[in-house]
Amino acid sequence: MERTDSNSQLTLPEELYLLACDMETEKLTKRDVMGNVLRAAVLVELTDRGCLTDDGGKARPVGDRRTGDPLLDAALRGIAEDKPRKWKAQVQLQRKHHFKTVEEQLERARLIAIERRTWRYDRIVVKDQALVKRLQAEVGETLTSGRPVKDYSTRQAALAALAAAGQFPTVISGKDQRKYKERIKALTERAGEAGPALKKALNDMQVATMIAVGAAISAGSS
């Protein structure tokens, strides 16, 4: 599936945020991992635009290039000013900031409307549902078609791979996660260094959560 003009005007992080929106329940799914997914998407897009490169397993800025997007350029400056870090460590940085910035950018563009709520999750209303449906269809085609993974652009592969890594229920079921496991792996590798790094970071987070829950249960029973 070729990218449409309306799709291509969005950044990869913005597309992934929209993909995680459940348009029926008007909620954002996978909030617990969204910051990591969006940060990985930022790294993928910066790499795809030639602003970042891999240097011995670490992310390194290329010259003084800029994208013109506030979030991407702020992330690039942060990486340039920081010490060199491996990709998995990069995925774990600035997660809350990226989440907030992407949400604000989509709100300003009037692609979503947010009802801030104190005791419940915010209500997220998607204004351009046709756009989100096109993104969902693109991810579905990327995951399930017989086309070789190499035929997809880095960005297309990343959109599907990061949605799968985040386990977005809006675009991929648990059954499809298992059925297309090998293709997801290939798409993740096609997405570049930030794709596998996100998978590792999410695995580490899941293990840490399980350890914390186990420790709490043990403390409560002692």
| General form | globular
Q: Going by CATH, what is the homologous superfamily? A: yeast vps74-n-term truncation variant domain like
Provide a count of the helices: 11
Question: What is the strand tally?
Answer: 6
Structural class, by secondary structure, is mainly alpha
Supply the CATH class: Mainly Alpha
Residues in β-strands, percent: 5-15%
Distance between the termini: 57 Å
Radius of gyration (CA) equals: 18 Å
CATH T-level topology: yeast vps74-n-term truncation variant fold
Q: Which residue ranges are poorly predicted, with pLDDT under 50 across at least 5 consecutive positions?
A: 1-6, 207-218
Helix percent reads 55-70%
Count of spatially separate domains: 1
The overall pLDDT, averaged over residues, is: 86
H/E element sequence: HHEEHEEHHHEEHHHHH
User: If classified by CATH, what would the architecture be?
Assistant: Orthogonal Bundle
Strand order of the largest sheet: 1-2
Biggest sheet architecture: 2 strands, antiparallel
Summarize the structure.
Pfam families: GPP34 (PF05719). By secondary structure, the protein is mostly helical. It has eleven helices and six strands.
Written account of the structure:
The protein has helices at 5-8, 12-19, 31-48, 70-81, 87-91, 95-108, 129-144, 154-165, 174-179, 181-190, 194-221; strands at 21-22, 27-28, 52-55, 58-61, 112-115, 123-126. The chain has 222 residues and is mainly α. The protein has one domain: yeast vps74-n-term truncation variant domain like (yeast vps74-n-term truncation variant fold), CATH 1.10.3630.10. The strands form three sheets. Strands 1-2 form a two-stranded antiparallel sheet. A two-stranded antiparallel sheet has the order 3-4. α3 (31-48) runs antiparallel to α11 (194-221) and α8 crosses α10. It is a peripheral membrane protein.
